[in-house]
Amino acid sequence: MPLYKAPLRDMRFVMFELMQGDEIAALPGYEEFTRDLIDPVLEEAAKICEEVLFPLNRSGDEEGCTLENGVVRTPKGFKQAYDLFREGGWTSLACDPAYGGQGAPSVVNTFVSEMICAANLSFGMYPGLSHGFYKALHAHGNEALKAEYLPKIVDGTWSGTMCLTEPHCGTDLGLLKTSATPQDDGSYSITGTKIFISAGEHDLTENIIHLVLARLPGAPKGTAGISLFLVPKFLPTEDGRPGQRNGAAVGSIEHKMGIKASSTCVMNFDGAKGWLVGEANKGMRAMFTMMNEARLGVGMQGLGIAEVAYQNAVAYARDRLQGRALSGAKQPEKPADPIVVHPDVRRMLLTARAYTQGCRALAGWAAQAIDVSKHHPDPVKRVEADDFVALVTPIVKALMTDLGFEVANIGVQVYGGHGFIREHGQEQYVRDCRIAQLYEGTNGIQALDLVGRKMGAHAGRYLRTFFHPVSDFIQTKMEDEALGEFVQPLAKAFVRLQQATAEVARRGLARPDEAGAAATEYLRLFGLVALAYLWARSAEISLPKVGTDQDPDGFYRAKVATARFYMERLLPQTSGLFAAIMAGGKSIMAFEEADF
Amino acid sequence: MPLYKAPLRDMRFVMFELMQGDEIAALPGYEEFTRDLIDPVLEEAAKICEEVLFPLNRSGDEEGCTLENGVVRTPKGFKQAYDLFREGGWTSLACDPAYGGQGAPSVVNTFVSEMICAANLSFGMYPGLSHGFYKALHAHGNEALKAEYLPKIVDGTWSGTMCLTEPHCGTDLGLLKTSATPQDDGSYSITGTKIFISAGEHDLTENIIHLVLARLPGAPKGTAGISLFLVPKFLPTEDGRPGQRNGAAVGSIEHKMGIKASSTCVMNFDGAKGWLVGEANKGMRAMFTMMNEARLGVGMQGLGIAEVAYQNAVAYARDRLQGRALSGAKQPEKPADPIVVHPDVRRMLLTARAYTQGCRALAGWAAQAIDVSKHHPDPVKRVEADDFVALVTPIVKALMTDLGFEVANIGVQVYGGHGFIREHGQEQYVRDCRIAQLYEGTNGIQALDLVGRKMGAHAGRYLRTFFHPVSDFIQTKMEDEALGEFVQPLAKAFVRLQQATAEVARRGLARPDEAGAAATEYLRLFGLVALAYLWARSAEISLPKVGTDQDPDGFYRAKVATARFYMERLLPQTSGLFAAIMAGGKSIMAFEEADF
């Protein structure tokens, strides 16, 4: 049977040792969120994830969602789990207290998200999308709309969706056709078809409120002519109950590779009544302001899956007896040794571990920056943190979902043939995780965002928020003998990143295709260097504690050993990435299209 | 709708230009197999694969196999397709004419296999396993058994299976428990449970014959006490019809990630009547003699999936309009450019192409060596070819399935969110392909085979069959200016491989764990260098033809351009692999087991 235990110890390490998370409570608005509050919040989250959401993960995958007569049914147990989730206050955790939220910092919400994704990614889609709706409406809605809808969204009685994609446009939203026609009462009539609408229809909440991108009559072509509308499934009555049925209905649900318990809907809007959110023709801007956090959220999906796949791989590797250690039998009294003795199995487990914990550190860093960017009293600090979030967002999204997929596949590989069998649960993680590399902007789009928008922004101002601390760390620690084995490989890889950055920037100015051709490898190079920096810092913190009474369970010992493995066995990939980047894009762009 | 067109042009390039396949017809026993015969055989194979097997691939995945009252039903259309397949002579293609086979060379059979795997991997499992049975019985059975069973297996009226794995043992067959008790009539009574038995039960043939590994009473422990038995589902009557039901029955079928139309059975043998194949206690040896070809066959599964995923990705990239080329609109009359204009999409397609065609060349090389090893009149040539097959087998199996999986995932990624939707067919390739990295020895086991058994065998004799031709090629072509861009990167990567080989061999002698810890990266390094050699040779052949009337459709132009991409953008991975190998296994083996 699959298992999941929330990695609270490591989350605390990231928040309170690596990131000095006590600084969070020093931010205005977060005063309550001291460690004394955060710890029990994480523990409660762990409990509902382990005990309520996780047991529904496999059955949800087997059963999937069904559509009958316009009604989408979620798998058995989902409604009860959602009720517990809602009653536990988890839909309101990171929401504005003005609308009934608990106002938790992003860093807390991020780790709660990781647990939800690890326990049941499909389930997490429902509150996840609803939170996206919350953020967009909170940032861009007028007071009337916010007062009418946000409290119900925050307390989870209602849920929200984001309706962007249409059949002929996903990445290129400028092509969208859904129309909005002004009505005499100040509302709009919305008509069009949206696809890939997660949680577009389901049976968990009494009402579903859609945010829909559409075009006003005579709107400019392309993305400059897109507006955002709020379209409820049931029009609310004056006393706030779901009233008359609106012209927004599910047309069909998709049959997918994974996240089968998450309903992915084709939504038909047929003269549905809606209200403008924000300014006319500024819909894309409204989307963009919330996209960073949505992308970080998808990154957490990769991380959550990686964690649970790793845990199960470790358990299997300890349990499965097969062959003998190459250096001689380790458990001669048993018919064979557990496969964890085999070097190649250990290599797989350590790879999974190093990526997973490294990504957790990166996620913590990004989430803390979000909090600082919003709440720090010093505007300079706010801008700096905001710059860092902008820079690191595509890396978090693409790196963490790519590595999450890699770790999920390691999870299968450790199981051997049994990994391919559904009942063991490992193959589901591969299927579920696969979507995270595709949606919220494919990982190729993230890479283009990094090299095209983020790298050159404000003459490299975003870049400096990463390059400066890493450079400072290297300079300060270079002579530290005990840290040498961590700092030296970091320094070497960092030079590669600096040179690649200069080269890609230089070439991209003359030929944008050159930046595009380098983008994916550049993002990976950047991400691996970021993890190296975080592993080196983790080693710095952990080294003095190894072998002391501060390390009764070997947590710090394992940190140092994993950091070492990362530096020796994974970071060297940066040399090949560097060479591929420096080779340039000619071989890619010169290839004749007809020759593919 | 998914598409598949057999890549006959590239297969001919590999067989008749890269490998000088005319030499095959010069081998005794293969005189018939001149290009005049091989071409139409491949064309006929393409036809049945494209027109009969491929249209059942998606429906087979959706429907899967069902078990009811001990009967396994294959998906709709499979039986009719199998009848056509059998009547077309495809089960007998590579079989001994003495038993009704057509005696085709391995190189022909290999490319036919690729097409079958590309068109319908699940379907291919049935004749594939049967061919494994054929080979084992042909090599090890006595004349009576061969005369009784082989003609029916060869003509496809009956099918065969290989029953090795048990619940507690897969890799470690020494642990198996199934028992064989001698009977007065010279037969044996077989009792035990086998799992993961592909084609163990189905409705395609009138009888199913199992080859079962089991222990005789008092047999030595471990692999030295395993014997091989033939156990029919129906005991044949004297006139060769299926007679009395034997005690071999399907217990359940597995629910799997992919290859859902292939029945994967738990087989219960309950006092089933069987006959010894080969010598008592020599069952493992019988298995090993056929394992090379089975592993090459699994490699072809990776290749077949890669090809079909690539083809569909290309078609989608040409068709899907999204965004504008970074260098300015390419099709300004359309609402957007096709995504094939985007550098990152081209990078993905070229990666898929370079791996796929490179693997096809490697497969052709290995298959031709099999033919030479069996049919060459010069025993020195036979041994040399056999050495090469032994060396390259784990590489073909692991590299081609790992890269096949990577390409299948590229196939999904090019589709964006649509890749996750089942109806487009791309996600099925990811699921189907995943098994190939696991069965017939996980890819980690292949890597151990390479470093543990093959590398040091006969003082490096196997290695020389690869190192010498590559080294000769580099020395001969080093000064060739036109080839420099291909030969120089090959030479650099080859030096890495030579140094890594020496280092792994040296360390492995003292500490076997060190070889184990390097194995996976070493196999990948080896495989990438092998592809580099084949790409350099492909470029050498193609360069003089580019721009001449020998290249009306740009085939050679594309070869050269793909070779260039491979050298510039993919081969650099070898530097990171080299560094990881040279770092050694200490960080892997020193990690405390309790700390995972």
Describe this structure in words.
The mean pLDDT of chain A is 96. The first copy, chain A, is of the alpha+beta class. Chain A is built from 18 helices and eleven strands. The longest helix of chain A has 37 residues, at 283-319. Among the domains of chain A are: 8-140, Orthogonal Bundle (Butyryl-Coa Dehydrogenase, subunit A, domain 1); 158-280, Butyryl-CoA Dehydrogenase, subunit A, domain 2 (Beta Barrel), CATH 2.40.110.20; 463-585, no CATH class. In chain A, the strands form three sheets. In chain A, strands 3, 4, 5, 6, 7, 10 and 11 form a seven-stranded mixed sheet that branches. In chain A, strands 1-2 form a two-stranded antiparallel ribbon. Chain A has a two-stranded antiparallel ribbon with strand order 8-9. In chain A, α1 (8-18) crosses α9 (343-375), α3 crosses α6 (106-140) and α12 crosses α15 (512-542). Chain A has helices at residues 8-18, 22-25, 35-53, 57-63, 78-87, 106-140, 143-154, 283-319, 343-375, 379-414, 426-434, 443-454, 461-477, 484-510, 512-542, 555-570, 573-582, 586-589, and strands at residues 66-68, 71-73, 158-163, 179-182, 188-198, 207-214, 227-232, 234-236, 242-245, 248-253, 264-277. The interface between A and B is large, with 102 and 102 residues.
Which keywords apply here?
homodimer; 596 residues; alpha+beta; Butyryl-Coa Dehydrogenase, subunit A, domain 1; Butyryl-CoA Dehydrogenase, subunit A, domain 2; seven-stranded mixed β-sheet; two-stranded antiparallel sheet; 18 helices; 55% helix; 11% strand
